[in-house]
Amino acid sequence: MNPTKETIDLVKTAQSVPDDLIKSFVQPNSATTGLQAYNLEAPAKKLYPLLTPLRNSIPRIGGGFAIQANWKAITNINVANVRAGVSEGKRGGVISHSTSEYMAAFRGFGLENNVTFEANYASKNYEDLKALAVQQSLESTMIQEERTILGGNTSVSLGTTPTPTLSAGTGGTLAAATYSVIAVALGLQAYLDTVGVNNGSIGSYFNAATAQVPGQIVRTNADGTTDTFGGGSARKSASATVNTSGSAGSITASVAQVNGAVGYAWFVGEAGSEKLVAVTSINSAVITAAASAGAQTAASLADSDNSTSALDFDGLLTQAFKPNSGAYIYNMATGTAGAGTGLTADGAGGIAEFEQAFVQFYNRYRLSPTVIYVSAQELINITKKVIGNGGAPLLRMTTDAVNPGNLQAGLRVAEYLNKVTGTKIPVVIHPNMPAGTVFFHTEKLPYPTSNVGNVVQMLMRQDYYQLEWPVKTRKYEYGVYADGVLQHYAPFAMGVITNIANA
How many domains does the chain have? Predict the structure, then answer.
């Protein structure tokens, strides 16, 4: 036996083995094959907005008890405006005062989440799911509280939506036929659910094929019980019909404005088969195309007024819309159906409708709002009209030493001067403010002996608390709850402009 020859022969044999057995390790072609680590960044990214400006700014007061908060207000100390002059030796006239009674029932609110044992096992070394479940329950409850503070409705019924007025036209894709149209007036909660919220989520938008106008809601709770309440929509209107001709038909529809509504849903189709085609922030619409096959039907909405919820407290908009609230309410005219009426530049660097509101606030109550809440659409429209300034546009040019030829374009109305009182009022985007609505908010009263520290406050029987329920199945269950009510001591200090067209 020759060891040297045997070694050489073994080397030759090894070199003749197929290539796939002698290659060194190479990078796999996909993330799930081969011998490799998984480059996963921990923890998960939280890509959702958490915007609660009203909740963050409104004071929260503890000490609430019983079933409702009650207070009285003196609103006039000399009802008959008795003159003060007196003659020698005689006494003056006798004054009389007027009072108002207020109450607001406490409401509980909260949300729950859970984590199964297996989900908790699987998330080890990546994310604390139990902490995340509580965090997201808290954040979701805060977002829902913000919606309720702005538009919760337990007392202002929208009633039955008026029957639409229709006319046929061209410029669309409707085939010649007889079409039936049904309208549904929407409160804030229903409007947000239908058009997309984008608070606590991203990427939501109105899609007529999948959107759902909430009618009567039946919710299954964490304990297996159910609650039934109104989703924020009015009772649907009676149907109206119109005949189109040709193959390029369209329908123009309008309804009388509904107090408390911030939008309107439109259902179109054959009589009895009307489907959702549009949601507008004004009381009219131009319908140019038939509804999608899977769109929500008007028949799916209960034939009842679903605008109020016994589980809500009244939000700011609702308290302003209440009859006899004294709040400034201005509805823009219907104008041309489908186009509506936009805000009006006053030719002096302002908005005519704002100036009218400020005059009324001062003449009736001797006060000025302190914040104007708007949607993104209205901020752009306000800016355009203010900067346009009746044909005398303003221009800001910004340059720097490095690039003196660069021009920075774009201006934004951040404050609005109340010309009556000289107050500078911030103009603020609110994430839940619907397009077509402007809200005037007053945080301080100019009355020296009012006994009102907070014009608006959340009176809490119990502020936020966390519950970890006893384990009864193989999952951890958590709840975040609070109990309170929104008190507004001076609802007359609010103002709302609605039905504003995007013009």
Answer: 2
